[in-house]
Amino acid sequence: MVPVPRTGRVFERDRRVRFGDVSPGGRGRFDALAGYVQDVAGDDTADAALPDESAWVVRRSVFEVSVPAAFRELLTLQTFCSGVGGRWAERRVVMRGDRGAVIDSCSLWVRIDAETGRPRPLSELFLATYGEAAGGRRVSARLQHDTHPPSDADTAPWALRFSDFDLLGHVNNAASWAIVEESVAAAPGVRPPYRATLEFREPIERGASIVVSRTVTADAARLWVNDSRTGANHLSAVVGPLS
Asked: Do 161 and 109 fall into the same domain?
């Protein structure tokens, strides 16, 4: 989690934590936070007025929640490019609340061709707009999680909803964080401050037969999201203490 740069483009927006964004205990949920990140990224891109920069898919997303957001808390979100690769870029979002929330996010986004779905090199205009904030930092798109759950993992089906799917016809990355929330709810020892990492391998499309496998320890939870028919691993996540 690199700090806010002293030079380069930093985009800022405020966001109020609403009723539909919190858990029964009043904690800002991961799926809501992911929606904030997605929205401020879109607002930043629109404000920069870059042509042909809308086709991006997330490959890895991390939240470090030191102090959770609370119901009705006003969050200030600052976002900037914190690193680049040949066909991808890393986006940081720093969230600070007027009631003390401290949340940091880092996501790796891959630029794709909207027609073919294949990765495309970053444009010169993108680098001219966001490169200074990145400060020459190079980032890898390599994923790190195991793709198959252990034999002793608890496994259950996961129902997909029409509202989970976005403009690309895939389960939206914010909706994917709802699966992580379900695992956190089932793990009483997993409490803030914590770090959550979600890795995306294959998009979940309409008609997929999804199962979620989960292991829980005293203070951590791991999950794998697979297709029961094909065996394909779509997502994997780890939530554990913030050291």
From this structure: no
Rounded to 5°, the CA angle 37-38-43 comes to: 95
- Structurally, the chain folds into a number of domains equal to 2
Please, what is the average pLDDT of the chain? 94
Which residues span the domain enclosing 68? 11-134
Q: How many whole angstroms separate alpha carbon 148 and alpha carbon 42?
A: 33
C-alpha distance from residue 139 to each of 5, 13, 89, 106, 214 (Å): 16, 25, 8, 12, 29
Q: Reduced to 3 states, what is the DSSP secondary structure of residue 75?
A: strand
- CATH code of the domain containing 227: 3.10.129.10
Q: Which two tokens stand for residue 136?
A: 């020459």
**H-only helix segments in 168-226:** 173-185
Distance CA 37, CA 29 (A): 13
pTM as predicted = 0.94
